[in-house]
Write a structure and sequence with these properties.
Layout: E1 2-7, H1 13-38, H2 44-69, E2 73-77, H3 98-121, E3 139-140, E4 158-162, E5 174-178, E6 195-199, E7 211-213, E8 225-227, E9 234-236, E10 242-245, E11 254-255, E12 257-259, E13 265-267
Antiparallel strand pairs: 1-2, 3-4, 4-5, 5-6, 6-11, 7-8, 8-9, 9-10, 12-13
Bound molecules: FE2/S2 (inorganic) cluster.
Residues 202, 204-205, 207, 228, 230-231, 233, 246-248 line the site of FE2/S2 (inorganic) cluster.
Amino acid sequence: MSEVFDREPPASPKAELLVAALLGGAAVLAVAFAVLLVADRHDTQLLGLTLGGAFALAAAALVVTARLVLPRERAIEERPELEHPEERPSLAVPVTRRRLLAAAAGAAATAFAAALAVPVSAIGPATSDPDPWRRGRRLVDEQGTPLTAADIALGSFVTAFPEGADPRVIASPVVLVRDDPGKIRTRRSWAPQGILAFSKICTHAGCAVALYRKPTYEPTSKPPALACPCHYSVFATREGGKVESGPAGRPLPQLPLAIGPDGELRAAGPLSGSAGPAWWSIRR
Ligand code: FES
């Protein structure tokens, strides 16, 4: 025998409809978030609005469900042994639109799964980075002015881009340094007059390689190297950008250079590997 001493009124059909509508709205916004990502619309405000709105509507649906849909009651039940458990009286106030609510919850869960799957699928090595470097392409400065071998002084550090290409592409920026040609140990033919070019994007996490270590007195100093200030990966310029120290997992891609009859610097081919950060070192 049990005695219910505190029972809320049963769920109203209106509350159930409200929950279904909120879950439906959450599903629509979550799908919109996934579609924006797939369509490459990286409008962060729109992405934030859609994903944040989806979570807000889902949270509202849970609150309404807890307060107005689920039965809430307190009962004291004496528990004599029952011969047949199915005889136990049910105290639950039935939810009248179970199917509708189950369908709305399923749609919302599926939409959230899609919204999670799209960004997760983008993690990892890019397999189709455009490499704008081609044989014969001139190297230009930020203003688009072609660079000549005379512009690269010993010890200087110059940033260059491929002429006519999008400078925002991750493989576009390279750094130019000049060294003693006789001291370059790897890919000597890629460095006419000792001028070396490497991708400016660190292979660890994608910061700009912004430091050049130039020894002042070679017998007692370390050889020249490019360094990334973010976590201090150091790349040996005389050895094809090999990682000398730091967390980077692979060398800095090198660009083969040629010097035209007019002294202009030109690419002699594409980069030696994919520019940009590695993913557990899974990249060329
Ligand atoms: S991003 Fe360059 S060392 Fe980490």
